[in-house]
Amino acid sequence: MAKNHQKVHAIMIPYPFQGHVIPFVHLAMKLASKGFTITFVNTHSVHQQISQAQTTLASAHDIFDEARKSGLDIRYATVSDGLPLDLDRSLNHDQHQESLLQASGSYVDQLIGKLVAENADPPVTCLIADTFFVWPSVIANKYNLVCVSFWTEPALVFTLYYHLDLLKQNGHFASKDNRRDTIDYIPGVEAIEPRDLMSYLQATDITTVLHRIIDKAFTDVKRADFVICNTVQELEQETLTALNQKQPVYAIGPILANDFAKTKIAMSLWSESDCSQWLNTKPNGSVLYVSFGSYAHVSKHDIVEIAHGLLLSGVNFVWVLRPDIVSSDDTDILPEGFIESARDKGLVVPWCHQIAVLSHPAIGGFLTHCGWNSIMESIWCGIPLICFPILTDQFTNRKLVVHDWKLGINLCDEKTISREKVSANIASLMSGEILNIKLMNEMKKVRKTLENATDGSSNKNFEDFISAVKVNIVSR
Question: Which UniProt keywords apply (predicted)?
Answer without folding.
Answer: Glycosyltransferase, Isoprene biosynthesis, Transferase
